[in-house]
């Protein structure tokens, strides 16, 4: 079989939307860095600046990398399905590790300062996002990468995986907005209402975060931008389908 | 034609999910009322309690009613399409009017207290949601209820309308979470970290809001729960299709 034979054309507008999402994602990371650098004294592990590791890691891991992991199937349209799956899973692992560093940073910071843990809505949402993220990864791995699950089981679980993946991503964006708001109100207090530069910059960061969520969700939900099944997968899925149907007592 | 002939069966699980969404939505409204009643002195138009009109109206209008307006096409599956459309549009009008009262309440409150307007991330997101909501309603009305738009134009715009409708709803939920967080930090300050009852109740309200968003989004995105096209619509759409294709210079 010629490998060139199953190369499907990329939808015309898709690359522009993907490029725009990456520009937005990198801008979000850069503005987070700028905010922490300009108004919060920068980043360090061994001082009170440890707190600042938290927002930066969360934005890189649970916003930018998580968003990009969701886009993998839209971007890599002609690579073998297994390669794309592994890349999707690996990007989520990187996102998880970076987010874990961000989580350790904030708990460490609270402990050294003697602050209470997990009292705020941001922290409740954050812990929930983290648990859901790990659960989704484990279930996804056991269905799609571990060789045990049957084709029909995968087909039935796939839409749920996609739906909850998108929801966890959006919930991460919402949690980031709550955290940003918390950081602003703790630090600025009533100065926030005088349109100080930090407040305006952070508000713009919040809108950029929401825009990144919007663009990633838009790319994901366009039906005609979904990854086309490849010749090899179609053949494979037919084999699996025949096998599964032959297994089932209700067939024929 | 027998009207009974085009009644499609309702998917088995759908009514349970819809019932659960309504239970959640009403719980969200009740908990918002309980929070304002127990910890914020209740609601009144002619006093400092005017502020409390804002969260209650926003939760009833832009969360509960907006969510229900999105579900109309899943719930009313066998009524004529036009009736369902009018109900969808009307629910959005009610949601808009209630939200407008909530918006006036907070601007009035700010004016009497001499507070600045529109400085916070919550207010930026809120104004954006409000503008997007009105724009989406006007564009939706001119495409789907105003008789001018052709069938092919409607078909092309429909997925965009659904996507942006869902996004505006989720953005409303996110904005409500930001507002809740703001109200807690302004009022409770450092007491928030001592797990005072108001903080715990409001955090639970935040999670309930996110759950309502999740359940509405889940019902909306299940492909097999979409409203089936009815015999009359299919006949009509065929007519329109023939007309549109006959109009087009490229046909035949």
Can you tell me the CATH class of chain A?
Mainly Alpha
Query: Could you say how many structural domains of chain A there are in total?
Result: 1
Number of strands of chain A: 0
The share of residues in helices of chain A is over 70%
Radius of gyration of chain A: 21 Å
Order of helices and strands of chain A: HHHHHHH
- What percent strand of chain A? under 5%
**According to CATH, what is the topology of chain A?**
Four Helix Bundle (Hemerythrin (Met), subunit A)
Give the topology, please.
2 copies of one chain form a homodimer.
Chain A: H1 14-39, H2 53-75, H3 81-113, H4 121-145, H5 151-188, H6 197-221, H7 231-247
Helix pairs in contact in A: 1-2, 1-6, 2-3, 2-5, 2-6, 3-4, 4-5, 5-6
Question: What characteristics describe this protein?
Answer:
homodimer; 252 residues; mainly alpha; Four Helix Bundle (Hemerythrin (Met), subunit A); globular; disordered N terminus
Summarize the structure.
Chain A is mainly alpha-helical. The first copy, chain A, has helices spanning 14-39, 53-75, 81-113, 121-145, 151-188, 197-221, 231-247.
Report on this model:
2 copies of one chain form a homodimer. The first copy, chain A, has 252 residues and is mainly α. Chain A has a single domain (12-246), classed as Four Helix Bundle (Hemerythrin (Met), subunit A) (Up-down Bundle). Helix content of chain A is 74%, strand content 0%. Chains A and B meet through helix 4, helix 5 and helix 6 of A and helix 4, helix 5 and helix 6 of B. Chains A, B: Residues 20-221 form the Cytochrome b561 domain. Chains A, B: The chain crosses the membrane at residues 16-38, 58-76, 88-107, 127-149, 161-180, 200-220. Chains A, B: Its main location: membrane.
